[in-house]
Amino acid sequence: MTNNTQFSEINPKSLVRWFFIGVIALIAIVLLSLSFYTVQSGEKALVFTWGKITNVQDEGLNFKIPIMQSVIKVDVRTMKAEAPAVAASKNMQTVHTRVTVNYHLEKDKLETIYTRVGLDVESKIIDSRIQEVVKAVTAKYTADALLAEREQVKSEISILLTQQVAPYNIIVEAGGVQITNFEFSPAFVQAIEDKQIAEQNALKAKNDLDRIRVEAEQQIATARGTAEAIRIQADAIRAQGGKEYVNLKAIEKWNGQLPTYTGGSAPMPFIDVK
Hints:
Number of helices: 8
Structural class: alpha+beta
Strand order of the largest sheet: 3-2-5
Distance between the termini: 171 Å
Helix content: 40-55%
Radius of gyration: 50 Å
Strand content: 15-25%
CATH topology of the domain at 79-184: Tetrahydropterin Synthase, Chain A
CATH superfamily of the domain at 79-184: Band 7 domain
Largest sheet: 3 strands, antiparallel
Order of helices and strands: HHEEEEEEEHHHHEHH
CATH architecture of the domain at 79-184: 2-Layer Sandwich
Oligomer: single chain
């Protein structure tokens, strides 16, 4: 009887009232949790009020009005874009390469960037500018020059690409442009190899001819030196009396013994040599 009395004392209106209070409290908690957001280091937050950008928030804990306001976080650190590029050289050889660009968005121009092109700047801006710049620069060089002057080509691409994306408030990092090896058709690569082999063979032949010429000149110089020495010696002999001088020198070198010869016992006389 007591339990029935307690149950009958519960007012249905009170139950409804407490139910609505609970629902409102739950909604309030949810809205409160949605009112705060955190911007991480290296990020900025675009705050939209009814779809229009009204503020740009820095890193830290921030407040926004639920339902009325929304937030998009933007990474302002250095990012990397990479795209393949196909172009033609000055001598109409097809060139394949890949360009990597390190860049960041200008922090104070995020609202302008979003309003103008959105945040997908790689596909909308950078990739297409890479194609244009590579085509413009490689068209100034022959295929051989692209390989021989790679650093100069890279510098020109970097400068031109920086200029192309600057109006969109995109900053290319210093030294942030990298280019992979230029690739050409297999036929052209083979032609380059054949040319290098021919140049090496021509250089070897030239070196061989130079060596032979030097050796011949050395032999001629040696012969001339020997002939000159003989001439000087002959002049000296004539200046000293000719035959008498030769005999005198022979006597000076004689050891006192007479040579013998087959066919007799008489000594061999000095023989005049003319």
